[in-house]
């Protein structure tokens, strides 16, 4: 593994498959076996986050591997970026359920989450200290 690249996307495959199966399987089970009362409704939003995090994790890992940054993205960063997708989708679903969602609000929410991730990556970049060789 190169020091300027994040790990291969294959490393994230077991986690992605686990989240994918738990999330989508849970959603299918929830939709077919329960009525939309308060508890199952909150479980629905949680399962949306898990399902879409598992779905977005391979893409996040691939993009971070394909377009390396300095410092390289750690596994927690890649998981956080996939988690943003799940949180965004659950929030959009929740706003749509209350008939509050419109295109402008969805775009503002997307931009807000992108700005938060950008600032977190900027903070990680400013705290990064490259390793020094013993010779130099």
Description of the structure:
This protein has about 140 residues and is mainly alpha-helical. It has helices spanning about 15-35, 40-65, 75-95, 105-125. It has one domain (about 10-125). It has 4 helices and no strands. It is globular. The chain starts with 12 loop residues before the first helix and ends in a 9-residue tail after the last helix. The model has no long low-confidence stretch (mean pLDDT about 90).
Key traits:
4 helices, mainly alpha, 136 residues, 0% strand, globular
DSSP strand (E) fraction? under 5%
Element string (H = helix, E = strand): HHHH
Total domain count:
1
Helix content: over 70%
Mean pLDDT rating: 90
Briefly, what is this?
Helix 1 packs antiparallel against helix 2 (38-66). The protein is 72% helix and 0% strand.
What is the topology?
Elements: H1 13-33, H2 38-66, H3 75-97, H4 103-127
Helix pairs in contact: 1-2, 2-3, 3-4
